[in-house]
User: What shape does this take?
Amino acid sequence: MKLRWLKWLRLLGLSAVVTAVPIAAADYVLSQHAISTGQAEADSMAERYLARAETTVAEALRVLADLRTGGRVTCSLADRTAFGMAAFNSEFIVQVGLTDEAGTLICGEPMGALAAPARLPVAEKGDPSVMLSVLSDGKDRRQAVVTLRVDDRMRLVARLAARALDIEAGAGYFEDSSVASVYLDDGSEWSKFAGKWTESDQSSALVSMVSSERYPIKVRVAVDEAAAQKSIAGLRTITIILSTLAGLGVFIIVIWSMWRQSDGDSFSRAVDNHEFIPYYQPVFDLMTGEIRGCEVLVRWLRPDGTMVPPGQFLAYAEATGAIRDITRQLMTQTVADVSDIYDKNPGLKLAINLTAMHFNDLEIMDDIKRIYGNSKIRYEQLCFEVTEQHPLKDLALSRAIIGRIQALGASVALDDVGTGHGGLAYLQKLGVDIIKIDKMFIDHIGTDHSSQTIVDTLVELGHQLGLGIVAEGVERPDQVEHLKSIGVVQAQGYIYSPPIPVKAFREFVLKSLESTKSGLGARTDKPVEVSDSFASLTVSVDEDDDEEADAA
Assistant: This one.
């Protein structure tokens, strides 16, 4: 009980870890992504403000340069009119005028823009031809001006609109969480844009600073990191949900794995305890009614007497490689079960199913020689069936193994012809002796033209290639008659017998052989009757499971 609780605690701990680790990892990744995105947004905002400032100054210079080139450099009525028209036609200029060397505005248009301040920066000899300055009323009002020298005493001046830099530079979620400042190289602030957030020493800010390469302008943008983190809140929620589901999924998977492990342990014990036994399905001569042998199929007989059909364990056996041990056990048991009968009746055939795994190496050859080499069952009485349902990894190696089996005197059959991966390529490359026509085609004889045509074609192909032919899953007299009419000699199926345990099979064989010797033969229109013990042993066998049992 303590171990069980410990196992459950481990399971819950694993599920918690699987839930918490992705959340922590995702939170870190998302946090870094938010910081990276916020920084990129701050950089983008700074670049946009700088671009607008450069555009504003460039337009002012263009306007002033056009006026100077046109000789509009006096305070005459015509020149003032030109100043007013230039300001009116500009998106960013609110006033154009003329100033003296002391910075006094001599004239300017439109006049309404002269409210304050009137004094401009003093222009001295040696100053640049173009000057950019910021005027302030000492409070919150600031105005940028651009001046262009006319001569040593006079400068054209353009006063820029305060709204010139009022743009939507960033994402909506940063609108109230950022501060942007545009200022000149001398430190004078041109414009400042701030939301509700105020940058302080306690706050975490993402800062971007850029400088113009054309003008003495700098831009600084600070963004609240907390706002950037809020932008990924939805992703965090999704991550928590997905991680919780992942933890639940791991819980379910581990429970399933524990169940599978428990099932796998019982399976391994079953292999070690030789709980897998052969069932025998007789094969008959359609023309004479004589028994020709059998196909060996696998069943799992538990110690409590319950029978596990092959469909519930064959896939697991193949996936784990246990099918090799099971096949060896079946072959060894056939020697104990029927070697005396086969010794007295050398015409009987014993068909053993092999899987694709058996053709990955030469181990099967050692098994065949060790088990049947000194037994009363001759190599010539053996037939090894390879199925099309699972692909062979190496056709050249598979062909070599088949050749070695045939060299012993045994034959090789291609099972489930037409239903799997190999198709006609297996017939061409493997060099088999017999083809077995699958039940799925036999079922539709007389009811489906396509399936019947496939059967007829396979039979004709087999005859042309000189191959033996066995029909599987024969259940009705009309199927028997059609198969006989197209030259199929051997068949197996429920019309004769389902797979049966060794005791019933021995009775079946002996009774069939006695009937043959007495000249009565075996009937082909209904199952041959055997003892009551046979009926009780086979009542739980499902025909569909026998199809899956062909793999072992």
In short: Residues 114-118, 522-552 have pLDDT under 50 and may be disordered. The first strand starts at residue 93 and ends at 99. The CA atoms of residues 160 and 351 lie 101 Å apart.
